[in-house]
TrEMBL record:
Record InterPro entries: Aldolase_TIM, DUS-like_FMN-bd, tRNA_hU_synthase_CS
Pfam families, A to Z: Dus
CDD domains cross-referenced by the UniProt entry: DUS_like_FMN
Presence of the UniProt keyword NADP in the record: yes
UniProt EC number: 1.3.1.88
Keywords, sorted A to Z: Flavoprotein, FMN, NAD, NADP, Oxidoreductase, tRNA processing
Lineage: Eukaryota, Sar, Alveolata, Dinophyceae, Suessiales
Name of this protein: tRNA-dihydrouridine(16/17) synthase [NAD(P)(+)]
Length: 458
């Protein structure tokens, strides 16, 4: 394959590049071992800040589309999922791209607010396959494009941050190694290997740590393992089996943000075999995570409120599962009724704090109901552990319900799409109907809550 190519600048020799890559890993990133994966809609600023307090050494942003992102205003960047702050470091911003120019332009736009930019080389979605980015770039006929994207960026005198890449394994380890070596040759500084193949049928297959190990042994660069870390203790096992410098986790961090700090899962279960205690403890832990997250979210809201609701549901899920059945499903539904008030035009700005505090209070209202019902706290308690409930009520209809029962707000002259954006709601009747059902679920919870004279047992 011809790798020279027009417009590709000179690179230092391989020894120098490898030395620089390790210096980047050690000095710039601070030798991270535990990494939060890029997650569309889920690794947003507030959640990253929670994870950083809970044992993650390095975080990735959700994947952003370089072609769309390049040239965006601050507000457009936020809408696409990129916001950050001084405490949000070390940070890698991930892009998908199909052209070297777009990737470089997007990278230049964020380079002062991150430590590296990452190229997504594994997104399996059909739009990626059709659009020629993400997983589509794994096709061998597209490897020259991958090489050009990385090489164009790293040889640009304007780009001051390194380029990293996130790949998936192929069925044949030798092919995975060839692909990874191409990235090394192109000037990439760190490679993350997701140990599952792109094929949809294999998405829930166990991650192949041996394949990751093969890449790590073949590369001279820092290599990060990803996939198959589901419970406390797995991360250490993954590091040992793959020999990688760090381990990246996605799904498990959505339910257990302090996964990396917890003792091995087997040890935890042996400590307390009582099923009911475990269940109550799990719910309590989930609520504490939610309250910690809301405390951060209030200050650093994301463009999409959906991310916050999804986080709360995921954090509560382990404590709400009992013998394979979901409990308190009505309250999990009710989380969707919170934050339905029309959103101010520039809701990310500091002057809109009241709006975000209101949204978070509504979410806390629902959490408190859940705790009272599960017997984790009394209706009159003002705190759960160190967390204040604010002005949460369990004896009257919270604002969430009032707002969601109101007729849909109509803004004159605005198109349907604009109306939806302003209301933060999709335009369709089924959505409105679902909102009403959620509100009804919440109302019935509230009616029973008002009758509780003392907390019910879990
Ligand atoms: C909600 C969600 C969103 C994701 N978004 C991205 C993404 O934006 N970019 C990416 O490279 N991978 C993305 N992934 C894949 C993860 O980064 C990771 O590679 C994969 O989930 C395997 O790790 P795990 O076994 O710890 O979940 C996403 C995964 C999840 C669960």
């Amino acid at each position: 394959m011809a790798r020279g190519g027009k417009g590709l600048g000179q690179l230092p020799d391989e020894d120098t590049r490898v030395r620089d890559a390790w210096r980047f890993y050690r000095e710039t990133l601070g030798s991270p071992r535990f990494v939060c994966a890029p997650m569309v809609g889920q690794s947003e600023l507030a959640y990253r800040l929670l994870l950083r307090k809970s044992g993650c050494d390095l975080c990735y942003t959700p994947m952003l589309h370089a072609e769309e992102f390049a040239g965006s205003s601050e507000e457009e960047m936020a809408r696409q999922g990129f916001t950050t702050c001084a405490e949000d470091r070390p940070l890698v911003v991930q892009f998908c791209a199909k052209s070297p120019e777009a990737f470089l332009e997007a990278a230049l736009q964020v380079q002062d607010r991150c430590d590296a930019v990452d190229l997504n080389l594994g997104c399996p979605q059909s739009k990626a396959m059709r659009g020629g980015w993400g997983g589509a770039l794994m096709e061998e006929e597209n490897w020259h494009t991958v090489y050009a994207i990385v090489r164009h960026a790293v040889s640009s005198p304007s780009l001051r941050v390194p380029v990293t890449c996130k790949i998936r394994v192929f069925a044949d380890d030798r092919k995975t190694v060839r692909f990874a070596k191409l990235l090394q040759e192109a000037g990439c500084s760190l490679v993350t290997v997701h140990g599952r193949q792109r094929d949809r049928a294999l998405h829930h297959a166990p991650a192949n740590w041996q394949a990751i190990r093969a890449v790590r042994e073949a590369l001279r660069l820092p290599t990060v393992a990803n996939g198959g870390v589901d419970a406390p203790g797995d991360a250490e096992r993954c590091l040992q089996e793959t020999g990688c410098v760090a381990v990246m986790v996605a799904t498990a961090l959505l339910q257990t943000p302090d996964l990396f700090l917890l003792p091995d899962a087997g040890v935890m279960q042996r400590q307390d075999g009582n099923q009911q205690n475990l269940q109550a403890e799990s719910l309590r832990r989930g609520v504490r995570y939610c309250l910690q997250y809301l405390r951060i979210y209030e200050e650093y809201p994301s463009w999409s409120l959906r991310a916050a609701r999804d986080h709360l549901r995921a954090l509560l899920a382990p404590g709400c599962m009992h013998q394979g059945q979901l409990r308190h499903g009505d309250l999990l539904e009710a989380l969707d009724a919170a934050g339905a008030a029309p959103r101010p035009a520039s809701a990310l700005h500091a002057e809109q704090k009241d709006y975000w505090q209101g949204v978070c209070q509504e979410l806390r209202d629902v959490l408190k109901l859940l705790c009272v019902r599960a017997g984790l706290c009394g209706a009159d308690d003002t705190t759960l552990d160190e967390f204040h409930w604010g002005t949460a009520r369990t004896d009257s209809v919270p604002r969430a319900l009032v707002v969601s029962c109101q007729p849909q707000l109509v803004i004159e002259g605005a198109s349907k799409a604009q109306q939806a954006l302003l209301r933060r709601a999709p335009v369709n009747k089924r959505f409105a109907e679902r909102r009403r059902q959620q509100a009804a679920a919440l109302q019935s919870c509230l009616q029973s809550a008002s009758k509780w004279s003392r907390p019910q047992s879990a």
